[in-house]
């Protein structure tokens, strides 16, 4: 083994010492030892001075000494608090930097895949004599990949807009049953017959319209992301159900699949930005990690509620969204 390899191995063993938490612990221990040594030295010196004063019969004035000691301890405490605040700030900055790297990596990967497909179809049509049927097929696939790019860009833009509270799109009366039905049709057209896809609309007293006050563009992206997520994590031949229920004064929308499922400890985490569950599955799902986070932000914007339920791995997942309902002919 060479000297360079030995140094590298030694550095890896001691790398934990450079971790911010290790540095903070060592700094706290150092300050504690320093305080102990200083106070011990101060007390010993004070005792020596007091004994000397008693020998030469000089009146002792030691009341101010303890005030100085207390002031020193308070200053040391402030220094420790400042050190801890610097540590917290650095950790937060480190998380932000890591999140930015994740954004670049995820979005770049998601952009490259459809761009590569579009380029391949274009080069094929330019370099080969293709029939009209093949040309139409290539153009349809190119359009599909273009729509995929558009959805990704819209997701990133809406995520940034909602995160900064700068969403200024107008709100109005939205027919949820009509909007959800349209989103289901679009998803079925997008994925073809690769999944058994069903749309279910439960309605009381033959009332087929469920109205809320919201933004149709954002709500359309909400349903599209939930349906797209269900399709991604459901194997070929699986089933996906989407529907609407009336619950007292609210409307509940659900998207149910019989796919991979989610463990209970991850049911709330899936709505965090860039959170991806590590899965050992035949399905290789690609994504930016923004879809469900955007869903959560859109529901929050509409003062609603979103949550997921699953019995565990390979037992499917159901996402529920609840909004306050308004009468069909109400102005608000």
Description:
With 332 residues, the protein is an alpha+beta fold. Among the domains are: 104-163, Helix Hairpins, CATH 1.10.287; 172-324, Heat Shock Protein 90. 57% of the residues lie in helices and 13% in strands. A five-stranded mixed sheet has the order 2-4-5-7-6. The chain has a two-stranded antiparallel ribbon with strand order 1-3. A hairpin with a 2-residue loop joins strand 4 and strand 5 (250-257). Helix 3 (63-127) packs antiparallel against helix 4 (132-163), helix 4 packs across helix 7 and helix 5 crosses helix 6. It is elongated. The model has no long low-confidence stretch (mean pLDDT 77). The chain crosses the membrane at residues 21-43, 63-88. One of its GO terms (cellular component) is plasma membrane. Residues 106-327 form the Histidine kinase domain.
